[in-house]
Specification:
single chain, 158 residues, alpha+beta, Immunoglobulin-like, five-stranded antiparallel sheet, 8 strands, elongated
Length: 158
């Protein structure tokens, strides 16, 4: 009898602590900005781009991000889609960086580069739309950010 009561108390305490990690209201969407875009390599079919995204958590609790899916457009031209491959916990009222490698079509990438060179305007308008999937929330949370990258870093890495 004592053992069953003890087990029941342990089970209830585990249940309460598990529920404490689940938000009671829909999380506010994280704010996602593009920190950098760096071409990794070029091939005849496309280029691999390394997107470094700053993900800010406006919530008062951690966001255990399982996956981030996005589509990136530069100057209203859809260039790439990507999905993060590594789970990251964004601290409460804090931020973390997420790196995503995507394959972009070479023709669209060079079209943007040619446009920048011909206009002598090395700033680049971008839009990143997508969804964040959290470990502790059943629905994907959408986000949409627009901005401008001034003189984007266009260096090749090994």
């Amino acid at each position: 009898m004592l053992i069953s009561r003890l087990m029941l108390c342990c089970l209830l305490s585990l249940l309460v602590s598990a529920c404490a990690s689940i938000p009671t209201s829909k999380p506010i969407a994280p704010k996602v900005t593009v920190a950098s875009v760096v071409p990794k390599n070029l091939s005849l079919s496309g280029t691999k781009l390394l997107f470094t995204l700053d993900v800010a958590n406006p919530n008062s609790y951690d966001l255990p991000m399982e996956q981030l899916e996005f589509a990136a457009s530069f100057d209203n031209q859809k260039i790439a889609n990507g999905t993060s491959e590594k789970a990251v916990t964004i601290p409460a009222n804090g931020q973390a960086q997420v790196e995503v490698v995507v394959v972009a079509k070479l023709s669209k990438f060079f079209g943007q580069l040619r446009s920048m060179l011909s206009s002598q305007d090395f700033s680049l308008d971008y839009q990143v739309t997508g969804f964040v999937k959290l470990a502790n929330w059943p629905l994907k949370i959408p986000f949409n950010v627009v901005g401008e990258i001034d003189e984007p870093e266009l260096r090749l890495t090994q």
